[in-house]
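Blackboard transcription, Thursday session:
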Amino acid sequence: MSKTKPSIPKGTRDFGPEEMGRREHIFSTIRKVFYKYGYQPIETPAMETLSTLLGKYGDEGDKLLFRILNSGDFLSSATDGDLQDRNLRPLSDAITDKGLRYDLTVPFARYVVQHQNEITFPFKRFQIQPVWRADRPQKGRYREFYQCDVDVIGSTSLLSEVELIQVIDEVFHRLEVAIEIKMNNRKVLSGLAEVIGERDRFSDLTVIIDKIEKIGIDRVMTELKDLEIAPKYLEQIRSVLTFSGGPQDKLKFLEEILDGSSIGIQGVKEMTMIFNYLQDLDVNATVIFDMSLARGLNYYTGAIIEVVSKDVQIGSICGGGRYDDLTGVFGLENISGVGVSFGADRIYDVLHQTNRFPNTKKSVSSLLLVNFGEAEEKYSLKLLQHIRQAGISAEIYPDHAKLKKQLAYANAKNIPHVALVGASEMEEGKITLKMMHSGEQKIMTLEELLQFLA
Amino acid sequence: MSKTKPSIPKGTRDFGPEEMGRREHIFSTIRKVFYKYGYQPIETPAMETLSTLLGKYGDEGDKLLFRILNSGDFLSSATDGDLQDRNLRPLSDAITDKGLRYDLTVPFARYVVQHQNEITFPFKRFQIQPVWRADRPQKGRYREFYQCDVDVIGSTSLLSEVELIQVIDEVFHRLEVAIEIKMNNRKVLSGLAEVIGERDRFSDLTVIIDKIEKIGIDRVMTELKDLEIAPKYLEQIRSVLTFSGGPQDKLKFLEEILDGSSIGIQGVKEMTMIFNYLQDLDVNATVIFDMSLARGLNYYTGAIIEVVSKDVQIGSICGGGRYDDLTGVFGLENISGVGVSFGADRIYDVLHQTNRFPNTKKSVSSLLLVNFGEAEEKYSLKLLQHIRQAGISAEIYPDHAKLKKQLAYANAKNIPHVALVGASEMEEGKITLKMMHSGEQKIMTLEELLQFLA
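(Written on the board underneath:)
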């Protein structure tokens, strides 16, 4: 075997103990809130058949799928012609039939259809797993990253939208991240497209409107103008995108503008109901009605949600919305659902930049027993067993190394207490406890030690 | 988009809420014990470069790696000749440079070498992640499954072996699985090979001895005979493999047999020390010295460990050993380590067959609020907020469905209590609580409800 200088594929990451503790803080907070609101976990395989994945994320998404080479004679379905002409597209279909999941939404839709007879609807599920995208890696964008998805599927009730706002609010409140929750409704945007006679170009419109955060209102208007929308309609769009006021003002304004579009009025009704319910509940976050929020994904059909940090400009840290027919492509029609996805990596960055990570003591022993030699280690093993039996996380240094080295180990690992048990301690049945932080030492019995550490 | 009948790749699995709860019981038990003994978590990417993976698992293992098709022009390094001749081996190397991890051991070795300057040795780490193998799927063998690895690396101390036995013991004690821990030492086997003049065929010998559980002593002896080992040596091997008695008897016996092999005597010394230490400690499991235990993997160099259930015959549910040079292949020499891996899927089967899964209440709401209509749901949302603020997991049925349907939902989801809040309850400020198990109903105030559910 040759010596290989070790490295990992670009866009992927190792997580060491400290990062793991911080990430677990995020995941366990999210998980606890999901459970509290009655959501249950599922997991799906890392690999899905390509027929499940292809065509669900647009042409661009298809290109970003990681495909898995078929086992054995992977060329068995490849034609001589395609091989000779190096026809990438048909060849890639011939030599791969599985891919790594690209998100958790499509596998969830597949899961719901496949297991529809075992599921009690409405199905409230969450899923926290990595996804893979062959994107060009850059700061904050990875080829392997975790998504935390929570959805209710099988109900059209707006209570689910309200509940998801509460879930988002509680997650970020627990994480001590101040947030703004932006909401809009694709029906409102549809209505707007309808009243300006542009229903057919709804998708183009939303793609442009979606850029407003990045490029600003003026450039959005320029791009809309390039679509050759009549000036009076352009003015109407601008008035919606720039309207300022509270949710109630906006809803009133939209009621007038969208008069004549039944889908638009339906969107206004939905938003009215959601804001009415929210008004009565304690919500820490600022919830705003952002009529310029569009969200790119075409499967959204109702309320759309996006969350940003108030303190760190890093883009959306959570987002989602209602979809009326996610499972249709797998043969199960008319199942409406709504869900949001928490972006663990960006949340990590926000907590890091705002210094919100707690001390993750959980992952560190409370005590290191120093190893002075063979007789001492044998004696210490018994002590250690008592300490662990009391539920205290503890360890012994495995080698008879110099005291200095053993203390350096405790230091590096952030172990707060060190027990010194040498010949005299053994004789007296005592333990010398050293506090690593202050350097202070105390002599105590095992019982006193257990009490002290409890 | 065409309708696809949804399915998942063979050998992979979906996990629904109930299985997730049970699996989490296993993982969280293992994780808690790992933490208690001072081990810290790491995670590595699902994909590793093929240069990290290839050549580490033998030719058979190389074939079982899932390879990931390169992005973009994946044929750019493929030669016309190889394409024309369909040369699978060079082509697969040309079109893939990443693979899915096959176990957690090689990525761990790669991690240790890559991050050696950040790590404080001895490094006690654990890792719980899925691995992928393109094996033929069969009962109990999957293409995606979880491993739970725990290792100490950077120390030759036998205290680590002792500690891992304690870790194994505590994990299975907490899981209520009665186990037998079998131990042997590769140095003992090396010594045996040496005294019969077969050091060169050590690997062949261990492969045959390793089969004893499956094929029995007689067929093992036949296979050894086929290696043309002299009759007197065959007798010696048989005497070792069939010797019965306690650890001390076996060690004494081996001391005689292995006299003259320094490596063999070293193995006996190590085992003596390990059993001495264990004697003084409380261990629930039966720990036996099994001189026929060989374990297939060639990187083991010292103690080897294998765990079986006393109640379910399913093979090894945990195993491992000491390796003296796992990181050498990545350029870091002379770093000894020892570790074991828990097989979550087999442990699942054992718990399932022996009915040892606890009620996983954690994943289920304690209370469902029935939804009687618009006025009631608005009122109930406030109640629900109070209930959740008290830390109680609860939910409201999102739709105004028939009572029967809502109760069926609570039933299917195993929600133990249902709150009925209709017009009369709203008027009186009361809640009617229905126990799903007994059907009993009680009328109470919110405060009384919170006390009842706390």
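Lecturer's comment: The mean pLDDT of chain B is 94.
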